[in-house]
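Support reply, case 0932

Customer input (verbatim):
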Amino acid sequence: MGNTHRENAIHKTMDLNTRRQFVKTAAAGLSLLTLPDLLTAKPAQGTAKKKIVCVGGHPDDPESGCGGTLAKLAAMGHKVTIIYLTTGEAGIPGKSHDEAAAIRKQEALNACKILNAKPVFAGQTDGSTVADNAALEHLQKLVAAEKPDVVFTHWPADAHKDHQVASLLTIQTWVRSSGKFSLYFFEVCTGEQTLIFMPTDYVDSETQEQKRKSVYCHTSQDPPGIYACGHAAMEDFRGREAGVKAAEGFVRMTGKGMGTIAL
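Our regenerated output:
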């Protein structure tokens, strides 16, 4: 190899190392909060009163999907907000949309009291949700108003269209925020609704009873049926995977804005 070729190779190596160091430095500067950080750090380490948002398709989805985690985070002193994409208008047979919405909104309010969460209603209609630009801008504003550190939402591979829409809008909100918050997906009725779900993170469900009480606030939705859909089995199975009595499983979103770049 001639001197010129050797010098070029050295410069390329130096450039690659410089790029790698830049990526590592930039990633470290993001300091995004993860679930393990949130659950293990002490208030003295600067994690007190973080802001948590959960976006669900209908009243009862956030409660059944990650109610235990939301209750646990609220008990640790963090601010928890639940954004319901719809008010469950189509969820009570024999009731008009207005009647059902009034009933289910009150059930959601009751559940949020148990979870120590603030309820927000995004105003879409159960069964007729849309993922257009107007809907995205509206959800962006609702999420941005909370200035969240961590956001939970439905897994995108879900059999229910409203769940898919809630997930898609939240993902796009995350993308447009350039990953300013950590994004996690929860599961509901795995095998029937949530599909091909493989958790990356687990939260010990020490607040299992509090979660159950919040789900049982949704009396119009047959709470025993919600648990019969597999939620008790899910908590048990995820607990076995995590090595605890019961747990909730999550998938962490990685990619754009997350500071994990492979070279």
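We compared this against your earlier run and they match. Two observations from our side: The radius of gyration is 21 Å. The domain at 49-252 is CATH 3.40.50.10320 (Rossmann fold). Please reopen the case if you see a mismatch on your end.
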